[in-house]
Amino acid sequence: TKDWFELFVAQNLVFDGLLYPLVFRHYVDAASPRTGNALAMLTEFINDWYAESARWVDATVKTAAEESPANAARLAEWVGMWRDEVLRALGPLAALALGEQGAAALADVRAEFDARVARLRLAA
Fold first, then answer.
1. In degrees, to the nearest 5, what angle opens at C-alpha 6 toward C-alphas 5 and 12?
2. What CA dihedral angle connects 104, 84, 50 and 120, to 10 degrees?
3. What is the mean pLDDT of residues 36-62?
4. What secondary structure does DSSP assign to 36-60, as a single string?
5. Which distant-in-sequence residues (6+ apart) come within 8 Å of 20 by Cβ?
6. Rounded CA separation 62/31 (Å)
7. Could you tell me which of 116, 104, 94 has the C-alpha nearest to residue 17?
8. Using CA atoms, how far apart are residues 101 and 99, in angstroms rounded to an integer?
9. Distance between CA atoms of 9 and 97, rounded to whole angstroms?
């Protein structure tokens, strides 16, 4: 990807927005009975960082989308394309990490991500 802002959207909004909740919420929650919450304690800073990063990314993307309808359309196109690509890539990871619950966890992550994108007024 040569467009720096497309890369920003792909990495910071889409990839992080799908991967972090899958791993640091669903997987950590599933592993907690085996780890005695040690994994949750060790990764707590990631959740704090992700929450702060998501606010900044959302503000940046929302500002760009509000600049013009053309920007909003381009951003929605990128989000839709990269969301589908990242979900395909995360499918095997979700299945490996969460077993039978992997598909449901990934569907939950997608629903939350789509709601986030809708709040940004981007129809992906």
1. 85
2. -110
3. 91
4. TTHHHHHHHHHHHHHHHHHHHHHHH
5. 46, 47, 50
6. 35
7. 116
8. 5
9. 26
Q: Which residue has the tokens 């890539």?
A: 89
Site of tokens 């592993």: 31
Q: Identify whether the C-beta of residue 9 lies closer than 8 Å to the C-beta of residue 79.
A: yes
Give residue-wise pLDDT tens across range 81-118: 999 999 999 999 999 999 999 999 999 999 999 999 99
Kindly state the tokens that stand for 105. Answer: 């966890």
20 touches 46 (CB < 8 A): yes
Please, are residues 98 and 105 in contact by the beta-carbon 8 Å criterion?
yes
d(CA 105, CA 91): 10
Tokens for 29, please give them: 């929650």
Q: Which amino acid is at 15?
A: F
Q: Go through the chain and tell me how many residues it has.
A: 124
Q: Residue 113 corresponds to which amino acid?
A: F
